[in-house]
Amino acid sequence: MIAGLSVGIPGAHRVSPENMHVTLRFIGEADNVQAEYIDMNLAEIKSPAFEIRLSGVDYFGSNRKVRSLWAGVEKNEILIRLHEKVESAVVRSGQQPGGHKFKPHVTLARFKGGAPSIAGAFIAANNGFAAGPLPIDRFTLFQSCLTDNGAVYSALAEYPLIG
Question: How is the chain split into domains, by residue range?
Fold first, then answer.
């Protein structure tokens, strides 16, 4: 259902359904030693399983250049606490603090300079979008590799949630 939202958008590079996710923390470059510390610290996180609901669509970018279209995640206290625990674990592993306000979303499509009119039309056509509840019983550490067709994600480790 969510993957169908980005069909037929002019100039958009759709995110494939298997790559759709909610980013708890973008880590960036990490060597093997840092990656081991990150994995160890993430494995110590205790959090209950929960459900999320997707609601609404929007874009990242400016009034001149749209970077991506996304579906929003409704406010969820357990998700926010999980994000905070992940942030803390990553910082304890030697990474710098994230520096961005947590805005839970699922990226649907990316642009290399999309026109604001495209985003406006997309939002107008899909502003009532809602999906869920979607069960969340784990979080995953991904490695991303950039290709000409966008990022390809590989799961490095999964961390189960309680319940």
Answer: 3-160
Whether the CB-CB separation of 68 and 87 falls below 8 Å is answered with no
> CA dihedral in degrees (34, 30, 139, 58; nearest 10)?
150
Measured at the CA of 15, the angle between CA 139 and CA 76, to 5 degrees, comes to 40
Question: How many CB atoms within 10 Å of residue 149?
Answer: 8
- The pTM (predicted TM-score) of the whole model is 0.91
Q: Which CATH class for the 3-160 domain?
A: alpha beta
Q: How far apart are CA 52 and CA 142, in angstroms?
A: 20
Q: For the segment 12-29, what is each residue's pLDDT rounded down to a tens digit? A: 889 989 889 999 999 988
Residue 141 CB-density burial (10 A; 0-12 exposed, 13-18 middle, 19+ buried): buried
Q: pLDDT digit string (tens) for 75-99? A: 999 999 999 999 999 999 999 998 8
At residue 152's C-alpha, the angle toward residues 75 and 106, to 5°, is: 15
Positive or negative, the CA dihedral 149, 106, 20, 120 is negative
pLDDT digits (tens, 9 = 90+) for 116-154: 888 899 999 998 999 999 999 999 999 988 877 777 889
Structure tokens at 5: 């939202």
